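Supplementary Methods S3. Complex input for the NDP-bound model.
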Amino acid sequence: MTQSYQNYIAGEWVAGGSEIENRNPSDVSDIIGLYAQASADQLDQALDQARVAQAEWEATGIEKKYNVLMAIGTEMMARAEELGTLLSREEGKPIAEGKGEVYRAGQFFTYYAAETLRQMGDTADSVRDGIEIDVRREALGVVGIISPWNFPTATASWKIAPALCYGNAVVWKPANATPASAVALTEIIAKQDVPKGLFSLVMGTGSEIGQRLVESPKVDGISFTGSVPVGKGIARAAIENLTKVQMEMGSKNALAVMDDADIDLAVAMSAGGAFGGSGQKCTASSRLIVHANVHDEFVEKLLKATQAMKVGHGQHAGTQIGPVVSQQQLDENLKYVELGKSEGAELACGGQRLDMPTTGFYMSPGVFINTKNDMRINREEMFAPLAAVIKVGSYDEALTTLNDTNFGLTAGIMTNSLARATHFRRNAKAGCVMVNLATAGTDYHVPFGGRGDSSYGPREQGSYAAEFYTVVKTAYISSGTPV
Ligand code: NDP
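Predicted complex, serialized as structure tokens:
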């Protein structure tokens, strides 16, 4: 019999009003489990209890907070193989990527464990005699976290860990496409000795439970990662209650390949950046802007590298590219393939639905050549194993083309020129800039976020996360009547 999994609300595991089925995108006959869908009342109960628990948690000593976060992170790292395999089974990415993601998620918790001990503030003299000023950060309060399916454990962890570190309570709505990873992380958090209801898991659809969460006046902040249209709707709903928001919403990242670059390295960074995670990364290198002097050599080598990538079952050894997450995503991807062709781009390889021994959502990685930056395939986030090559005549044209986008999350350049690399670092309009690296692949101890439609609100990760998860208090302390 298929196992049922419950929500964790106000400190208790509880059944929902209904359940959804979770199937393996590598093999849809593999049912991972049935997952409870929270009711509106359960969400409200989670929010009410979170308010009570938050006050207690904020008053808890920093060493206790350190111990809790460290225990969560340590267990995740120790169980990276097991939980990474589960993640692979429900999301489709190869096991090595799933394991790497869970390990990285554990590192977010251990990093923020250490941050709990770095409670530094500012002091100042008042302009008035006999008065001192102390500026410190306090918790934001109750935080609603809405996370996507493409990095179900890491994205949630880089939100949950700082939220708890800075003294907040969390109500988490994960993506319905990846509930097993959400339950696994919740089970680890639920083992901790923390106030009842400090952390709740409310699985349910975005349009019902997610929407109710962002509209609730019981929430002080919403941290969201997902699509631009949903992000805009969340911002509109949140402003009604003046709820603080932080949003990361994808991109259309470009990697510029200059004529002085190491072409083999450029090909490796392009293929890895474009097709890793089946292209389902907000940091994917989906536009490849290539100098005319090296264009033909680059394209020839890129096509060879792309065709050599092994597409397969996410849990099978040797697989480099797993299936995409769902039938809906596959249909969208194939629509973009047709759109690209209809816009005049040449599909030089891949971009086809693939049949495998098991029924899943497989497609071959595809490369478009002879594309223009104003084509929709170069303007819209496809979230697919698809890359488009744009030929340019100079570094200046490459930079202008790269910056000509509504997004601005990551941007990269492949060059051996220090002058170009330096100019690029200063002039690429993106939140994260890479030199001789793929646009995907970021660290956990430094800020992450973008510009334009990519991000809204304070940065995530590193000590910069405090901007969102805390509020500043300025205290004036008089030492008495001045003598
Ligand atoms: P969504 O933006 O729909 O989903 C992201 C999260 O938001 C999920 O947890 C979802 O819940 C939730 N959600 C959906 N609607 C609402 C709402 N009205 N109020 C509150 N929460 C809501 O993205 P999709 O999963 O549908 O993916 C579509 C496209 O979005 C992708 O193809 C990609 O282009 C982009 N995307 C970008 C990501 C990134 O990392 N930047 C991550 C994911 C998607 P649920 O899914 O359970 O209904």
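Residues 146-150, 173, 175-177, 205-207, 210-211, 214, 225-227, 230, 233-234, 248-250, 282, 381, 383 surround NDP (CB under 6 Å). The chain has a mean pLDDT of 97.
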